[in-house]
Amino acid sequence: MRSGTGIFVLRDETSLVAMQPASFATEDDFQRLLASFPELLAGDQINAQDPRRFLLVAREKGIASEEGGGDRWSLDHLFLDQDGVPTLVEVKRGTDTRIRREVVGQMLDYAANSVLYWPVEELRAQWRESCDREGRDPESVMAEFLGVAADTEGFWTTVRTNLQAGRIRLLFVADKIPSELRRIVEFLNRQMQPAEVLALELRQYEGQGLKTLAPIVFGRTEEAAQRKGAARPPAETRSWDEDAVLAVIGEREDRELLETSRRIADWIKANADEVVFGTNTKWGSIGAQFRKDDASILALRLWTDGTAVVYFQHMIGKPAFGDLARRQELLDRLNGIPGIKLPADAVSKRKTIQLAGWTPETTAGFLSVMDWFVATFRAAPANPKAASWEA
């Protein structure tokens, strides 16, 4: 079997699968994959310090060219990130010749008109309709997306503000980004303020019933990042520390919850390569960042509302846990602890765990599993940024 791609999947301790390049059968297959798994947009590559998470508003989102007019164009996907930044995604296969130049003019039309003719109320209504079609409760979806103390009204107000300011993200997605498009994207990203222009190459590999996706983001040069950072108005922040986080949790007057939170905070301090604290003014957190070679995972956070989050989606494409089977093992170990029950889709997402009601045995079991996570991560060889699953 050819193995020139340099992409392998470790099926078990004695079986290494060489992966071969594969293409998406149709553009619609490509689009449906992104709609189902927004984490493939590689939010950690877009912003390593604060990885982007994406909420799908709609596929085939219509765009008018005049006030009150009908839809003239159709955008492949509209996502919002956790800061309410509209992310316009246009998908093309590498074999489509339009990906070289025509798609750029197309996307600029979308950008120029969407900021003028997209009422935020319409976006919100379409998002709720999407939730209804999928049988999902919008409030639960938003709480899961925004995390603790979700301020839904404030979020949609921020979306409106971002549209009015032209603070949007244009994302070209293909299984092969041509060099011409990459140069154009890098140029536009340097010049456009405050919009961000990026390209995502999503390579697909197959082998022995397995599929692997390797996302790579282009366009985010250091120069562009610095200029856009300077152009963005400073956000209100608060400096949290461990004492402040635990003090807010203590205000709930739940002694068991406070003790559980203190044990998790102690574990983070003892095991993390870097202890990170949130800067949000409304809620605080203490998090555990782990590093190996050039890979890092923000794996766990303790929040002031008495919850913890295990970030499975940050493990995608990272040593050991880039493999779906290993993330599934982590999920199974957590769900084997009495008092913890995470859904099946947690294996590739972020899921909030309520700590209230945990017994000392639950806490001990949770920390034991996290010990296993750390040992497995540190023992694994570095691997390419790829997401794998059974075909």
Number of domains: 2
User: What is the total tally of β strands?
Assistant: 15
Radius of gyration: 21 Å
The percentage of residues in β strands lies in 25-35%
Give the overall form. Answer: globular
Share of helical residues: 25-40%
In N-to-C order, the SSE pattern is EEEHHEEEHHHHEHEEHHHEEEEHEHE
Q: Could you report the average pLDDT, rounded to the nearest whole number?
A: 86
Termini, distance in Å? 19 Å
Largest sheet entry: 8 strands, mixed
Given the helix and strand composition, which structural class is it?
Answer: alpha+beta
Task: Walk me through what this model shows.
It is a single chain. The chain is of the alpha+beta class and 391 residues long. The chain folds into two domains: 8-231, no CATH class; 242-390, no CATH class. The chain has twelve helices and 15 strands. It has helices spanning 27-36, 43-46, 102-117, 120-133, 138-146, 152-165, 179-191, 222-231, 242-250, 255-271, 324-335, 360-379, and strands at 8-12, 15-18, 20-22, 54-64, 71-81, 86-91, 169-174, 196-207, 210-218, 274-277, 285-292, 295-303, 307-311, 350-354, 387-390. The strands form three sheets. Strands 3, 4, 5, 6, 7, 8, 9 and 15 form an eight-stranded mixed sheet that branches. A five-stranded antiparallel sheet has the order 10-11-12-13-14. The protein has a two-stranded antiparallel sheet with strand order 1-2. The radius of gyration is 21 Å and the shape is globular.
